[in-house]
Amino acid sequence: MPGLKLDPRGLITSCPSCGAANRLPFAHLGQPTRCGKCHTDLGPPAKPVDVPSAALFDALVSSSALPVLVDFWAEWCGPCRMVAPQVAMVAQRNAGRLVVAKVDTDALQDLSGRLGIRSIPTLAVFDRGDLVSRTAGAMSAEQIEAFVRGAVADGD
Ligand code: ZN
Question: Which of 36, 72, 142, 154 is at 20 to 30 A from 83, Cα to Cα?
Fold first, then answer.
């Protein structure tokens, strides 16, 4: 699946068949969606999506029908580079049940400050707009999945 992009109302993905850009609306994430042009099944978001602004971050976490796992990282951070492929694996294995987003803490310093992110990598789970759990330090995909399961169970 090609890369995903955030917009104020959803995730933009390219149709695997015709290449048309399609929006997966936040409120319908996790539900089957077909291409508006050729009606091919688009499949759920299966890759991490980069968060380009605090406003789009807020739109995503407040409106997403699925829990959102956020990876707070920075270019210069060695452990972040180790955790990135694990986070990507989690996105792929949990497609349709979880949205995975990445926040560059250097680019979005105001957002990271507001959320009190003090060390990176930090992984945080948002469910219906609330930050339900966070953890710092590099982890394997299996450890991340266990962390997400615990976070979402506690939130219910
Ligand atoms: Zn299409």
Answer: 154
Output the CA 48–ligand 1 centroid distance in Å.
21
The reply to whether 18 belongs to the active site is no
Show pLDDT as tens, one digit a residue, over the chain (156 residues): 467 999 999 999 999 999 999 999 999 999 999 999 999 999 999 999 999 999 999 999 999 999 999 999 999 999 999 999 999 999 999 999 999 999 999 999 999 999 999 999 999 999 999 999 999 999 999 999 999 999 998 655
The pTM of this model reads 0.95
Q: Are 48 and 91 in contact (CB under 8 A)?
A: yes
Tell me how far the alpha carbon of residue 50 lies from the centroid of ligand 1, in angstroms: 23
Distance (angstroms) between ligand 1 centre and the Cα of 3 equals 15
Distance 4 CA to ligand 1 centre (A): 15
Q: How far is CA 108 from the centre of its chain?
A: 15
* Among 15, 18, 38, 77, the one annotated catalytic: 77
Q: In the structure encoding, which two tokens stand for residue 91, read together?
A: 């996105």
